[in-house]
Amino acid sequence: MAGSEKTSVLLEETRLFHPPKDLVENSNVMQYMKKKGFKTEKELRTWASANLEEFWGEMGKEYATWFKPFDKVLDWKPPYSKWFLGGLINATYNCVDRHAKGAKKDKVAYIGVGEPLGDVRKFTYGDLYKEVNKLANGLKSLGIKKGDIVSIYMPMIPELPIAMLACAKLGIIHSVTFSGFSSKAYGDRVIDGGSRISITVDGFWRRGKVVPLKESADEALLTAPSVEKQIVYKRCGNEVKWNPRDIWWHDLVKDQSTECDCEQLDPEHRLYLLYTSGTTGKPKGIEHAQGGTVVGCPQTLHWVFDLKDNDVWWCTADIGWVTGHSYIVYAPLSLGVTSIMYEGSPDFPDFGRWWSIIQEHKVNVLYTAPTAIRMFMKAGAQWSDKYDLKSLRLLGTVGEPINPEAWIWYRTNIGRGELQIMDTWWQTETGTFINSPLPTTPLKPGSCTMPLPGYNTEVWDESGHKVPTGEGGNVVIMTPYPTMLRDFYKDPARYMKTYWEHYWKVAPGVYLAGDKGREDADGYFWIQGRIDDVLKVAGHRLGNSEVESAAVSHPKVAEAAVIGKPDEVKGEVIIVFAILRSGVEPSEDLKKELIAHIRKTLGPVGMPEAVYFVNDVPKTRSGKIMRRVIRAKAMGQPVGDISTLMNPEAVDGIPKIV
Ligand code: WTA
């Protein structure tokens, strides 16, 4: 795990970066503090986290518009929470309709920057309103209704949020698959959701080439008989094979009305499913609710990134991940701000692309990932130096622990040595930032600081006690919050097992986040990486077991063990130890074939960096692959006590790879 090596570096980190006075004074959170009479940030954090219902009740009224006001803030029966009971709401109404019908009608919601140079499309809130309504009416005409699931497989173009918002408007649950995932990944998600509709594009631009996404979607649907219709948005005009179930987006919406009523929904009505990797088995569909999302998302964005009405916000994540769901779609639209959406690769046509976008569109707040920062750091500051980045006033990062070195590079080269960096720690499951600085918080490079107001996190040992200050343990979330996951789709038993069972006997309702971390004497958290077998490759979350299944699906492979190897740029890269079937000869060609096979099965994000053939992999007596032991051996570190393994001799056969 990436954490252990970083611990020593983090332990030495003593630099403190105080926020400039004007940032503090003008910050949104400071206005709230003044209103409530809190003198310090600590007072606010302590009060809100101790008075959850009062705090969230207030936020529920402040950030969302309700068709019918809620009469109870929280119903918490661990491990299930319900929020804003008795209210009626619609997420799309909050993101689009209320702005389109008000002063923000002509304000730009999305600046859609296509990868080809000069391809820029702007959508105002009024435009979004019409486009969302036409598509929603189109969906209705196909017989889709409230509670159905629609699968979406689209790139980073404004039609992706339009599709999501059209679903949400009707109370349809969207299930988005990242366009960098393979057809198999899409197929699995379509099947799990039993979707009747798939929405995709003909193709999209990536590094100057068209990626023919419809081909992958079609391949996926071969295994998914539930799909009756596939809506295809024409993005690139590349040639596509046409099937009887296909319908062009432009044909579907052509004669549709630009008006469409919102479903008035119970706030617990599911907004979306998003699949994520855990320790075991196939990815699980995380369920998120309508009401909580349009309260927690805008509130956290408003406070942490301090967005003002005229700001241009750029979250560089892909909407295929939770960061995009929350902070490209539901949060910025609820707040009615302008966002950038960029379709392509950060290095196309060169490493100056992002900085040229910031210069051209005068981006004020940039939120990205450590893997991107490390990539730019490697490419060199000469790329960003060429552009005027003066419009920037705040920076952010998410996805994995950021090494202090990358943090300092980011602040120095992108932030003119002045800008504060909001290191936000959270997960697909949490829906919003959990631990994060506010603009008022002094920063320590590499620390995601403290639980935000309205959230409670601690570090616990295995027996369920808070560990002493400075010592490592499991990061736990102590209390519910409006955006928390509601369940695993069709698998409540695994939901219980994954997050709640661990501490159930000592403290029912304490959530095991799956991360290791520690809290220092000032109450700052330092996240050290995952406890479980989950990889973070260039910020993308993948289960080791998923990659292993992909390897084993090759006919010449009998068994495989996968580890993450620390990598300067990507955080981790994937290393496969494969056991071949008897009679199969190992060869360099077979390694290449296997890498290509895994890439095809999982998509580009799952491509291994290297494959090693071994005769056996170490396992526990119950047959669980001991990835920790394999990793230690491969990295040339002590393997610890292996006497209880089923086959300790297998450890000798694992090569040292560094
Ligand atoms: C890791 C991404 C350290 C962590 C929003 C978490 C982080 C997992 C940070 C969730 C951060 C995310 N510092 N680690 N600021 N942010 N992580 O579901 O291990 O893709 O559990 O959600 O990313 O990844 P996910």
Tell me what the structure shows.
Mean pLDDT is 94; it is low at 1-11. It contains 21 helices and 28 strands. The strands form 7 sheets. The protein has an 8-stranded mixed sheet, sandwiched between helices. A 7-stranded mixed sheet has the order 4-3-15-14-16-17-18, sandwiched between helices. Strands 19-20-22-23 form a 4-stranded antiparallel sheet. It is 33% helix and 22% strand. A hairpin with a 6-residue loop joins strand 3 and strand 4 (120-124). By secondary structure, it is α/β, with parallel strands linked by helices. Among the domains are: 124-275, Rossmann fold (3-Layer(aba) Sandwich); 533-653, GMP Synthetase, Chain A, domain 3 (2-Layer Sandwich). 5'-O-[(S)-ethoxy(hydroxy)phosphoryl]adenosine (WTA) binds at residues 276, 321-323, 398-401, 423-428, 448, 513-515, 527, 530, 541.
Give me the Rg, rounded: 24 Å
Q: Distance between the terminal alpha carbons, to the nearest Å?
A: 15 Å
Give the % helix: 25-40%
CATH hierarchy: architecture of the domain at 124-275: 3-Layer(aba) Sandwich
Low-confidence spans: 1-11
Strand order of the largest sheet: 11-10-7-5-6-12-13-21
Form type? globular
- Helix-and-strand structural type: alpha/beta
Counting DSSP H or I runs of 4 or more residues, the number of helices is: 21
CATH class of the domain at 124-275: Alpha Beta
If you average the pLDDT, what whole number results? 94
| Number of separate strands | 28
CATH fold topology of the domain at 124-275? Rossmann fold
Main beta sheet: strand number and arrangement?
Answer: 8 strands, mixed
* Proportion of residues in β-strands: 15-25%
**Ligands:** 5'-O-[(S)-ethoxy(hydroxy)phosphoryl]adenosine
